[in-house]
Design a protein that fits this description.
By secondary structure, this protein is of the alpha/beta class. 30% of the residues lie in helices and 20% in strands. It is built from three helices and four strands. The chain has a four-stranded parallel sheet with strand order 1-4-3-2. Strand 2, helix 1 and strand 3 form a beta-alpha-beta unit. The chain is globular, with a radius of gyration of 14 Å. The N terminus is likely disordered.
Length: 106
Amino acid sequence: RGFRRIPASTMLVLRGVKTPAPSATVLTIGNFDGVHLGHQALLARVGQAARACGLPAAVLTFEPHPREFFDPASAPARLTTLREKLELLQNYGADLACVSPFNTVF
């Protein structure tokens, strides 16, 4: 699909919510499939708040989509793979992404 990582920046990706972020963050939570215009606006606001506080902009997202867990038959088709989603999140300003498994343990 042509998504590319921004070379000047490397987003830290954490797996699971038990892995602590290396510092305080400004955090947004969501699935972010497709990273549509609403997501982009939210990420811009998180980035602005993070810069104002001198903190990293962070995203907590889920794998799989919660609806895939609760009702696989009615889950929406994915718009992006996890890798594409992470590339898009980085492209729109996330410094850190935490990918939480959405399962019975969560």
